[in-house]
Amino acid sequence: MTITKKILQMIKQYDRIIVHRHMRPDPDALGSQCGLAEILRTNFPDKEVYQVGGPVEGLAFLAEMDEITDQLYEGSLVIVTDTANAPRISDERYALGDKLIKIDHHPNDDPYGDLLWVNTQASSCSEIIADFAFAEKLAITENAARLLYAGIVGDTGRFLYPATTSHTLLVAAKLLDYGFDATKLNREIDQISLDVAKLSGYLYQNLQIDNNGAGYVFLDQGILKKYGIKDSDTASLVPLPGTIDVVLAWAVFVEQPEGYYRVRLRSKGPVINNLAKRYHGGGHPLASGANAKDQAMCQEIYHEIQILCENYRKK
């Protein structure tokens, strides 16, 4: 039996399904989570289907979360999308369900759940959810297609990143046929505030780059407050160093109100997810996240990026 049939079989066994995703959601987290929830509601109208996980941090144009009681988890099936490690699942009540399905495209370092579908070759978890729907001939609404397309666009950087395959483009093309306004959606994903635009200038001016293309910039609380920016607003800044020709891999260190740093790592070649794992994080080979307790640890991380870039240049 294929994995899609196993998942569908388990879905059919439950009257209540609760779908989770990771903390601090990006378009793929919301696209895969809420796209799946929408597909399940459409194809199984007699089932209760909820999407949970707290604030959507600037992505309300995609979807909002349901607020449910603990009691609803009793006897329920829980599905978690786009979340590599269990500690990153948003809303720890995911463990209260009867059974748990993990659907993801990150390296399977934490194989949690009773049933797992992890496809690291997929561009995004939204691509996997679309594959599931197509394979099992499930009805897809215009809104579900919009959500899944948003997830694919978000995780591929509009089809610019290496994870984009011919299959990715085929799936995206099929989703476009459902008639949602892709131009509007792309504009919503791409749009930034004037304050974020001004902070982009600060990032470019303060980015430090060594001779091998290792770069970093600090965005401390003072800078964030000066520009009126929250941590969730910085996501659109992370790809910017990559537009510079001499930059090979980089880190954006964002200070949190509690004092530690959220570390956003990106690369054009050197593999960085193993580095992220050593600092309480993880992700893809060329796009990962981590955490650092202070600036000294941030400098440790940057030093490791320098070594990765130096070794990569020698190949």
UniProtKB/TrEMBL annotation:
Gene Ontology terms for molecular function: nucleic acid binding
Organism for this UniProt entry: Enterococcus raffinosus ATCC 49464
Domain DHHA1: 243-306
A Pfam family annotated for this UniProt entry: DHHA1
Alphabetical list of InterPro entries matching this protein: DDH_dom (IPR001667), DHH_sf (IPR038763), DHHA1_dom (IPR003156), Oligoribo/pAp-PDE_c-di-AMP_PDE (IPR051319)
Segments forming domain DDH: 16-152
Gene3D superfamilies reported in the protein's UniProt record: 3.10.310.30, inorganic pyrophosphatase (n-terminal core)
Protein name: Phosphoesterase RecJ protein
Superkingdom assignment: Bacteria
